Amino acid sequence: MGPQWRDNHNQTDTGCTSLMPQSLACTHCKIKTALLILAQKVAGIPSPFAFALQPSRHSLHFDPFLPPGTPSLTARNPPPPQLQQRSLPWTVLQAAPTPRKQRARQRQRRDGDAAATGMPKEKYDPPDPRRMYTIMSSEEAANGKKSHWAELEISGKVRSLSSSLWSLTHLTALHLSDNSLSRIPSDIAKLHNLVYLDLSSNKIRSLPAELGNMVSLRELHLNNNLLRVLPFELGKLFQLQTLGLKGNPLTQDILNLYQEPDGTRRLLNYLLDNLAGTAKRISTEQPPPRSWIMLQEPDRTRPTALFSVMCYNVLCDKYATRQLYGYCPSWALNWEYRKKAIMQEILSCNADIISLQEVETEQYYSFFLAELKERGYNGFFSPKSRARTMSEQERKHVDGCAIFFKTEKFTLVQKHTVEFNQLAMANSEGSEAMLNRVMTKDNIGVAVLLELRKELIEMSSGKPHPGMDKQLVLVANAHMHWDPEYSDVKLVQTMMFLSEVKNIIDKASRSLKPGISGEHATIPLVLCADLNSLPDSGVVEYLSTGGVETNHKDFKELRYNESLTNFSCNGKNGTTNGRITHGFKLKSAYENGLMPYTNYTFDFKGIIDYIFYSKPQLNILGILGPLDHHWLIENNISGCPHPLIPSDHFSLFAQLELVLPFLPPQQRKLVLGTDKLSSD
Fold first, then answer.
1. Nearest C-alpha neighbor of 54 from the set 24, 22, 27, 91
2. What is the pLDDT of residue 126?
3. Which of 221, 421, 580, 656 is geometrically suited to a Cys-Cys bond with 198, CB 3.0 to 4.6 A?
4. Would you state the pLDDT for residue 459?
């Protein structure tokens, strides 16, 4: 059992009046001694007492009777390899609030600008400055009572820090003020969970560049040091809300920025935009090429046509703001900079069909269509529904969806725009959810019916095939609502889109393939989309399994039942046993985790972009693999866009094989006529 403490502490501001040795006299002094020993051990200073950190990141243990030389730190998750646990009686200290006087002193040290600097979306609660300590008995420790300490304070004019400190990666707050530190090791960046770091009132002359990798920081206090310059890497601390710099001999340029209204944000933006060498490194530190993943060989036993498809959300200029992407320099968010890299990404794939989301209206005509036409593409574009009610000038900046195709391989037969809010209005069937939630969102989809040129068929198979030189494929592209709280809207939008796509295919089959039945009359579908939905969502379940239950959790128990039957691709009969079905057999080009994420930002990384294709007419041959994850980690890329990655989405690219039907001689004369239809 641990030592029994007697409390002779006289409640005065000057400390203990006991005649016993201060470290052993009372609870108050015992706590002070424990913290002093912790500071000495972390700082590498010998102590007459022994201190140990039990292998639990939640417990602080102290025993003044352990002999010198007892290992100073052990930790769970994981323990430092050089330290071993000893089976000895421990006394446990557990964190609790301190007096108000301590809070006032803490506020004096926090003499910084608390302006928000970027895009912190989670609520931040600063550490409570009232830090007191309670004693956990040996019995409580032995019985496994849990304690928690996520903060650590070291004081006492410490001059250096032990490397053991950097193994405490669970820490969220580190108080190192009022010491004699002249430098901070770069290993401090290992404390990646820190949200609060106080280095005030030391003798620090320079900061490590690695400090900029601690992107979880919300408060950084550097007051009253000897700093003359700041590393540009500090600009990467986009979540920083408070930066204390007063009392440092900084250059006038830095001080002028810092002292402006919203000075913290302005200073961090300046540092990030001028990050030393960033622009110079772009040409030499390009991401490694994404690997090609071959999934199967083409079917050589029957005639086929091969073509490739790209799906890419290019991040519209009006959405590329520092408020949303605070980790990206302003110049790298600028459209004039990003559009070059976006076009380079598109052209490097050399896809036969390109589906783009978030294309600004003006940029479609002045940039995308102009550039791609020079390279043998034609295209179709439609903006979001809000453009209907805007002036001509305002419409220029509305984004939408675009599809491009190589004219040497395809001919445009039809083009269609699907406006989800119009469909919601026409099919609400009295559903308040349809009117209040779906109709208010102006997302759209587009579709083009393409005819394969005989050159593509001959190019793929190596020989002409009489009677099979005119084949059709429908390419659809959509961008669903973004908000995770509106999973019902995304699912309904997807149902509406599939319903319209099915209608387009059915009408085209009847008018363009009269007299042909069975699989020969079915027009294959390629569906590209930013669904804003994860693989386990109702949206993806609906597409990949052919249907979804009417009481699926993504509907949020809202009343859609009556209106949903209108969007069944099989009409009223498509609703069976409480399940809404569609008439396609769709497969995702990227299955089985081949792409770990298609959207890569600081606070979200996941799969929300997809390429689906219809079976059995289409087969997948290969896909473009993901960007090397190790490259992202090694270059400390916490999110995109980035100077080397122009969008927050990664492009998808797949090669497909269209299996061509061999028509009996009596049906060959009925294969497609030469009339072309066009409808908006």
1. 91
2. 84
3. 221
4. 63
Report d(CA 554, CA 487) in Å as an integer.
5
* 547-549 and 579-581 strand pairing: antiparallel
**In the chain, which stretches have pLDDT less than 50?**
1-30, 46-118, 280, 283-284, 572-573, 668-680
In this structure, what DSSP letter does residue 39 have?
A: H
DSSP H helical ranges for 71-203: 100-109, 138-142
Q: Is 595:607 a contact under the CB 8 Å cutoff?
A: yes
* CA nearest to 560, candidates 569, 550, 546: 550
Rounded to an integer, what distance in angstroms lies between the CA atom of residue 499 and that of residue 494? 9
From residue 217, alpha-carbon distances to 41, 124, 136, 569 in Å are: 26, 10, 31, 51
Backbone phi, then psi, for 496, in 5-degree steps?
Answer: -65, -40
Nearest residue to 257 via CA among 244, 270, 246: 270
Beta bridge partners of 132: 96
Nearest-10 crossing angle of helices 263-273, 252-259: 130
State the pLDDT at residue 33: 54
* Three-state SS at 360: strand
For 160, half-sphere exposure in the C-beta direction (CA atoms, 13 angstrom radius) is 6
CA separation (Å) from 438 to 92, 266, 390, 422, 563? 57, 39, 21, 10, 12
- The answer to whether 247 touches 204, Cβ cutoff 8 Å, is no
pLDDT given for residue 7 in this prediction? 36
The tokens of 657 are what? 């094989």
User: Residue 147's pLDDT is what?
Assistant: 79
* Residue 591 backbone dihedrals phi, psi, to 5 degrees: -110, 170
Residue 610's closest CA among 353, 307, 312? 312
Q: Which residues contact 622 (CB under 8 A, 6 or more apart)?
A: 292, 293, 294, 295, 654, 655
Terminal C-alpha separation, the chain: 85
By three-state DSSP, how is residue 539 classified? helix
Beta-ladder partners of 143:
none
Residues 174/152, Cβ–Cβ less than 8 Å: yes
Tokens (6 digits) for 371 = 């550039």
CB atoms near residue 121 (< 10 Å): 11
Take residue 123 and report the two structure tokens written for it. 């609520």
Cis? peptide before 524, omega within 30° of 0: no
Going across the sheet that includes 242-244, the strands are: 151-153, 173-175, 196-198, 219-221, 242-244
Cα–Cα distance, 175 to 165 (Å, whole number)? 12
Beta bridge mates, 547: 581
SS3 394: helix
- What predicted TM-score, i.e. pTM, was given to this entire model? 0.78
Q: Which residues are catalytic?
A: 530
